[in-house]
Design a protein that fits this description.
Number of helices: 10
Number of strands: 20
Helix content: 10-25%
Distance between the termini: 39 Å
Radius of gyration: 25 Å
Order of helices and strands: EHHEHEHEEEHEHEHHEEHEEEEEEEEHEE
Structural class: alpha+beta
Length: about 400
């Protein structure tokens, strides 16, 4: 009889147990040799976190296979691109009129097998943050082979040999799915269902289209803006050139949930961000900046500035995680200083509330009018140690106690 354990809905949000850690545990096991999964939605975040283990898994001659749903723009280009690179076999399933919704992860070796069946998609929410319910089943082999095969058949029945809605994914087909706008692009902020064509199905054949009348054209003025004049273009080019000396400003957004960073607010409200973080993920900060600051002296040159100022919501937490200060719809002045090759933001109202080495957590907001949601945990906050643990990179220099930061 297989043994089982349960990941309860509160386990992931509270950090008691998270499926991503269970998957890592199984990928690290020497006695497991096959890995497969089927999910409705997938994004790059969990796969990036599994990359090193997947590479070791493949180097050891072990096999991996994944089946992805692509309904409702729930699966990203980046997730499928990664999977083609790091998994042995990749498939996608979509059937017009029926949402594809299973979530099963399984491992098999010579002496045991493991399966996770529940509500967890292959996203950072599904793997770590969401209220999910999952059962882990453990099988002794060969004694419980038949019981495991009952589970495995759920997966294998979805392969193309028995399920006509499933296709093997190739680079050519991935390009077609992208062209048909059936996948989420995680490199673009706000690239979810809102403002994007709703996917209705991936046709395998050249069936005739219904005579649908297109929506009206976008007005070229106003929404798309006026074409910049030559002088304005030259100013933007000069600002970009300054940043490009030290930062790869054309690098696309690396899909992350956010950034955690220790900060030391200056007396004038300036907060120096990490130069290394900007080099790693410049698009997260809105780079390249195309504006320019107004110098105090007319003979001086301005610095590249992000224009317009990103609008942010800021919350500061103290003892017992009480909200001690907040700013809403705040225009965050953001400037690139050429001398030190760093980004500085200015929020003067924070000076009296935010001590040194507080941890600032920046998340790209889901609200269209807000660029970032910023939570600041002072050293008195009980959550300060938790977020500090996320800061797994040390900034060069920065005084006797160097600051740390980390992406999550």
């Amino acid at each position: 009889m297989p043994t089982f354990s349960i990941i309860a809905p509160l386990d992931q949000p509270l950090g008691n147990r998270r499926l991503l850690e269970d998957i890592k545990r199984c990928l690290s096991s020497k006695d497991l040799e096959e890995f497969g999964f089927v999910v409705a939605f997938a994004k790059a975040g969990p796969l990036y976190r599994l990359q090193e283990l997947l590479e070791k898994w493949r180097t050891a001659g072990k096999s991996s296979v994944g089946i992805f749903g692509i309904d409702h723009l729930g699966t990203s280009i980046q997730a499928l691109d990664f999977s083609l690179e790091h998994l042995d076999r990749v498939f996608f399933t979509q059937h017009r009129g029926n949402s594809f919704h299973p979530k099963v992860y399984w491992f098999r070796g010579k002496k045991r097998a493991v399966a996770f069946i529940g509500s967890n998609n292959l996203t950072m929410g599904g793997m770590e943050l969401n209220f999910e319910a999952t059962i882990e089943l453990n099988f002794e082999l060969p004694a419980e082979k038949e019981s495991f095969e009952d589970v495995h058949r759920m997966f294998s029945a979805l392969l193309p040999e028995t399920c006509s809605a499933t296709q093997a994914l190739t680079r050519e087909l991935l390009g077609q799915l992208i062209q048909d706008q059936l996948l989420l692009d995680e490199s673009k902020k706000g690239s979810g269902v809102s403002g994007t064509k709703r996917a209705t199905g991936y046709a395998k054949n050249n069936s005739p289209r219904l005579p649908v009348r297109p929506i009206s054209s976008l007005p070229p003025k106003g929404l798309l803006g006026q074409i910049a004049d030559k002088k304005e273009l030259q100013q933007k080019a000069a600002a970009i050139a300054i940043q490009a000396k030290s930062i790869e400003v054309t690098k696309p957004l690396v899909p992350v949930m956010g950034l955690a960073m220790q900060i030391k607010p200056h007396h004038n409200g300036e907060i120096f961000l990490s130069r290394t973080a900007a080099q790693q993920n410049p698009a997260f900060f809105g780079m390249p900046f195309t504006g320019e600051t107004t110098p105090k002296k007319g003979t001086n040159s301005g610095y590249p500035q992000r224009l317009p100022d990103p609008i942010v919501n800021i919350a500061v937490f103290g003892k017992r995680n009480e909200l001690i200060f907040s700013l809403e719809n705040y225009p965050l002045n953001t400037v690139f200083y050429e001398e030190k090759k760093e980004i500085r933001v200015t929020a003067s109202p924070l000076v009296e509330w935010v001590p040194e080495y507080s941890v600032m957590v920046m998340t790209l907001s889901e609200l269209p009018e807000i660029e970032y949601d910023i939570a600041i945990f002072t050293p008195d906050s009980p959550d300060h140690p938790t977020w500090l643990a996320v800061c797994n990179q040390t900034m060069p220099g920065g005084g006797k106690v160097p600051r740390k930061f980390g992406w999550y």
